[in-house]
Design brief:
The chain is mainly β. The protein contains no helices and nine strands. It has one domain: Jelly Rolls (Sandwich), CATH 2.60.120.340.
Length: 112
């Protein structure tokens, strides 16, 4: 018999800049992840240009590419009625020209 477990999680990253930051890491086998919210907050005194992508191996697909987030403002990349499904091998990468904080909320569905 297959057992399915649903778990809500939250992932936090502070000080995200030009180095790609992976949230929450690579989705593992037996797990489907629904991103229910993804918020980027500019924490600097300069405008930030933010890119958010789903990667899987050599494939990169942008959700947002170089979107301007003015100083001390936020961008809701995923939320309200939008959801993003991640499958095993997928991960989320966030890059920015200025320091930003990222909050990602998920529903993780594990099949065992």
């Amino acid at each position: 018999m297959t057992t399915v477990t649903n778990t809500f999680n939250r992932y936090l990253k502070t000080g995200v800049t030009t180095a790609a930051n992976v949230l929450p890491g690579v989705v593992t086998s037996g797990v489907d992840m629904v991103v229910t919210g993804l918020i980027v907050a500019n924490t600097t005194g300069a405008d930030a240009f933010v890119s958010i992508a789903i990667t899987n191996g050599a494939t990169t697909c942008y959700l947002i590419k170089s979107s301007k987030v003015p100083t001390t403002e936020s961008l809701i990349a995923v939320g309200w009625d939008q959801k993003v499904v991640l499958k095993p091998g997928d991960n989320i990468q966030v890059t920015s020209t200025s320091s930003v904080d990222v909050v990602m909320s998920t529903l993780e569905i594990t099949t065992a």
